[in-house]
Amino acid sequence: MTQLPAQPSEPTLPSSSALVATLEELYQRYLPLRDGKVADYIPELAKMNPDCFSICIATVDGQVYEVGDSEQLFTIQSISKVFVHGLALEDYGRERLLTKVGVEPTGDAFNAIVLDEQSKRPYNPMVNAGAIAITSLIKGADATEKLNRMLDMFRRYVGHDIFIDVATYVSERSTGDRNRAMGYLMHHFGMIEDPVDDALDLYFQQCSLMVNCRDLAVMAATLANQGVNPQTGDRAVEAGYVRDILSVMYTCGMYNFAGEWAYLVGLPAKSGVCGGIIAIVPDQIGIAVFSPPLDFRGNSVRGVKVCEALSHQFGLHLFDSSRGCHNFLKHWSVK
Ligand code: GLU
What is the DSSP letter of 57? Predict the structure, then answer.
């Protein structure tokens, strides 16, 4: 009789652990919060269920703690910008990339049509203009090779294959004139090369990748783990670029709430109009929250509340040396 090869063993999830109980308590605390509105400027996004809610924490040793709808798939949207920034850093290097896209927060909306007056660079890789410029720089002989390189990169972060939601992609593309306007403006100033439409297409595709909250937590934990996926051991990004990625997340990752977020929560983070937020506690954990209703700036209402509470409760603010952020894993005895 043929013997089936042994399956790789799953990391054990201590479902009854105190950490899960704490996440469950946060979930119950914010479940009744009904503020905010699901994004509807892209028709497909308007179909998201406002009641979906999940909180996940992945540790740098590969454990995942999850509550709520952690397997519900949704499109990654702007959270993709973080990871594509990393790929562009690998393709171009820090110095060269900086000549094309700045690292200054804008204080403007994510889709503002604005470039730095003097350099004509988009302000940073986390706003749409900067992200489109970053995506236009991804190397590859043609559109297919560029997309495949991007999918490979995302696969390393997530630890499994990752797919585009075609309906969202088509919806993004058919309502994407504002992004198109930015692309052509940057092309006019020599910041994006031909063909502009290929770059825009790749950008719409990256925004339409399907993930769930657990995937996002593992991706965040990969950044917390210096670029190595803690579950598969695969390197997703060169360790030397993790600091670049996290710095830009810290100053620009939460739309025009980034300053207040840095002040209150104190963690590098990124949100997307899907209602997802990731936050990173370097060398410790990746946090992901998913809840589609957004505030007027585009951040998940419940997501912001949960992250504020986690940061406060566990002392995660990076600059609060009296608190526990350096000892999260020890505190929960999960390492
Ligand atoms: N696809 C979205 C757009 O470009 C991404 C927006 C976001 O999540 O911030 O409009």
Answer: E
Cβ–ligand 1 contact at 207 (below 6 Å): yes
Distance CA 81, CA 253 (A): 9
Q: How many Å apart are CA 36 and CA 305, to the nearest integer?
A: 12
Ligand 1 pocket check: which of 82, 216, 273 to mutate, most ligand atoms within 8 Å of Cβ? 273
Measure the CA angle with vertex 322, ends 22 and 308; round to 5°.
40
Determine if ligand 1 sits within 6 Å of the CB of residue 244. Answer: no
Locate 213 and state its tokens: 């909250």
Tell me if 179 CB under 6 Å of ligand 1. Answer: yes
d(CA 272, CA 249) in angstroms, rounded, equals 12
Domain regions of the chain by residue span = 16-331
Query: Which contacts (CB < 8 Å, 24+ apart) does range 137-142 have?
Result: 137/88, 137/91, 137/92, 137/97, 137/100, 138/84, 138/87, 138/88, 138/91, 138/202, 139/91
Q: What's the pLDDT tens digit per position in 60-89? A: 999 999 999 999 999 999 999 999 999 999
Q: How far is the CA of 203 from the centre of ligand 1 (A)?
A: 9
CB-facing half-sphere around the CA of 46: CA atoms within 13 A? 6
Output the CA 77–ligand 1 centroid distance in Å.
5
Q: State the sign of the Cα–Cα–Cα–Cα dihedral 245, 251, 257, 262.
A: positive
The CATH classification of domain 16-331, taken from the options 3.40.50.300, 3.40.710.10, 3.40.50.2000, 3.40.30.10: 3.40.710.10
227-282 pLDDT, tens digit per residue, is 999 999 999 999 999 999 999 999 999 999 999 999 999 999 999 999 999 999 99
Please give the model's pTM, rounded to 2 decimal places. Answer: 0.93
The answer for 147, left when phi > 0, alpha when psi is -120 to 50, beta otherwise, is: alpha
Q: How many angstroms separate the alpha carbon of residue 188 from the centre of ligand 1? A: 22
